[in-house]
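Re: the request from the purification team.
They wanted to know what the chain is likely to look like in 3D before they choose a buffer screen. I agreed to run a prediction and write the result into the notebook, where they can find it.
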Amino acid sequence: MPQKPQAAAPARIAVIGGGAIGGYTAALAQWAGLDVTLCVRSPLESLSVESGGTVRPAAVRIVTDPAQVAPVDWVLLTTKAQDTPGAEGWLRRLCGRDTAVAVLQNGIGLEERVAPLVPRGTRILPTVVYISAERTAPGRILHHVASELHVPEGPLADRFAAVLDGSGLRVHRVADFTTAAWRKLFTNLAANPITALLQQRIGILADPEMAALTRDLLREAAVVARAEGADIGEADITRTLELYATAPPDGGSSMLYDRLAGRPLEHEFLTGAVVRAGERHGIATPLNRMLLTLLRAVDHELRREGTHGRRDVRA
């Protein structure tokens, strides 16, 4: 009798980072039947995600030592941008000849950020993330809204979409990734600094004066974005303001969650990216520079107090 063809083994996925994005993407990939390893610094007893009022566990393999892993098909790098250098040990162990790395981080210049940390020739897929989630406790993720990943179109993007097909993580392939990256940066440029500095939720952006400040911040950044080659205009500013207006008022931002948990902030890769790009093009950015100065002061105090990793709370 002819033998039945054996089913292909599930794709091997390693997710670096056990925060909100890492935990959420690892869970969805595992639920879709993929072979998922979650790489974290501190041990986790388990992983679960709450979404729509339902809590569901994810049977991922959780490891804390790069010596415990071997090359995989895909690496999803989900650490905060400022923690990227600390992922080098994981990346060196996880990247083999056929491995691709998807960088699920905030900011711009994702390929350049990661390229020095992976073996030469490793394919890198910069990824814009539209997922609102927070880590309420180690291994406990609360998903608020959205599950979209935007990547530059091409064969690697097609392969990425095929791997995640059916996971609930929707992969969108875009022709102009520079514009896509700046549009995502826009969603963070006002919400992250303002909520973190005020230690308030997204609802604060509905205040008319706060909305006016937000528009001015984004208009300032739009000039920089166009100088960087992004097709960003008034419609993008309006779209961002509408996004803030329709977001759940009790939702937060990743920078707010980091401040509440006593973790270092991501300001240098968000607001700082705008200020530095403005400097390169001779464009003044007084509003964003002011926010950057304030955020640096907050971050300095967090580091001085040595609160990194001391607490992890939900506001």
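For the purification team: The mean pLDDT is 93.
Please add any questions underneath this entry.
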